[in-house]
Amino acid sequence: MDARHPQPAEVPAPALTLPGCPLCDADGGHLVVRLPVCRVIRADEPGFPALYRVVLNDHVAEWSDVSDADQADVMRVVNTVERVLRELLHPTKINLAALGNVVPHVHWHVIARFDWDSHFPAPIWAQPQRAVEPGQLSVVSQLLPRVDDVLRQRLLPS
Amino acid sequence: MDARHPQPAEVPAPALTLPGCPLCDADGGHLVVRLPVCRVIRADEPGFPALYRVVLNDHVAEWSDVSDADQADVMRVVNTVERVLRELLHPTKINLAALGNVVPHVHWHVIARFDWDSHFPAPIWAQPQRAVEPGQLSVVSQLLPRVDDVLRQRLLPS
């Protein structure tokens, strides 16, 4: 075997990308960790500081078209994000969603919801229910660098 | 071994239920198929005839508290519902979501979305974008008994 010419199995397959897709052309937010199958980004959505997304690296529109192995890998990451948000932020509830009507490239929203947030208990896409005290948002925002660090510790190989 | 007294391993564990929880006290909609770990129901939501839910039988609030084995089983069912909706209804997009802010008992929404529906491309919880032609909804509704049949064929052991 020639070490200069690795076997095909050693060469990672190039990601399937669609030029013009916002999640193929860019990370889609503040990159927390890039993994072989997917990446975790923080969305910086106004009013919802703890809105993370687990974005499939390949351009695939529907969840059921993702291979079993990649689905398992993405779900392992979604679980880790959910657990870290629960441990560090103690939200009232976690919301998970893969919609993709506007950007049909598989991405899971993992959102820490609080009973004081602008929309709770409605989904974040509904009409707001109340104004939010900026101090409450700021308490959450200040914890996010720590959330990002713990996510990297748990998700990156040691 | 006494056949009248099966070993503990042969006795299914009773479901974890919380009296007063709407998804512990009732199926939560039109029951399509009941499986050991979860059930599939059709929600009969106005404007969204093809809104199915995969409901965990046990009362667990957060996805990351569901065991790996049960998560895999629920995701297999979510995938099957998604695939059958795609095959029979040809929606513009599938939306998946596990929110549970109002009923904190794990249930996945599996929603066939159409570019003509009242909210597309917004999530179904957002403000409506347009009125819908009743004839379009009725075309989808007429196909649902067939969707339910195919779901039972694919999900129940033969």
Specify the overall morphology of chain A.
globular
H/E element sequence of chain A: HEEEHEEH
Q: Averaging pLDDT over every residue of chain A, what do you get?
A: 93
Structural class of chain A: alpha+beta
Main interface pair? A-B, 32 and 32 residues
Beta-strand segment tally of chain A: 5
* Sequence stretches where pLDDT stays below 50 over 5 or more residues of chain A: 1-7
- Overall domain count of chain A: 1
**Percent of residues of chain A in beta strands?**
15-25%
Counting DSSP H or I runs of 4 or more residues, the number of helices of chain A is: 3
Oligomeric form of this entry?
homodimer
What is the terminal separation of chain A in angstroms?
29 Å
Q: What would CATH call the homologous superfamily of chain A?
A: HIT-like
Helical amount of chain A: 25-40%
Q: What is the spatial order of strands in the main beta sheet of chain A? A: 1-2-3-5-4
CATH topology (level 3) name of chain A: HIT family, subunit A
How would you explain this protein's 3D organization?
The structure is a homodimer of 158-residue chains. Chain A is of the alpha+beta class and 158 residues long. Chain A has one domain: HIT-like (HIT family, subunit A, 2-Layer Sandwich). Chain A is built from three helices and five strands, in the order H-E-E-E-H-E-E-H. The first copy, chain A, has helices at 22-25, 68-89, 134-155, and strands at 30-34, 38-42, 51-56, 93-98, 107-113. In chain A, strands 1-2-3-5-4 form a five-stranded antiparallel sheet, covered by helices on one side. In chain A, helix 2 crosses helix 3 (134-155). Chain A is globular, with a radius of gyration of 17 Å. The model of chain A is unreliable at 1-7 (pLDDT under 50). Chain A binds chain B through residues 61-64, 71-72, 75, 78-79, 82-83, 86, 92-102, 104, 113, 120-123, 125-127, and chain B through 61-64, 71-72, 75, 78-79, 82-83, 86, 92-102, 104, 113, 120-123, 125-127.
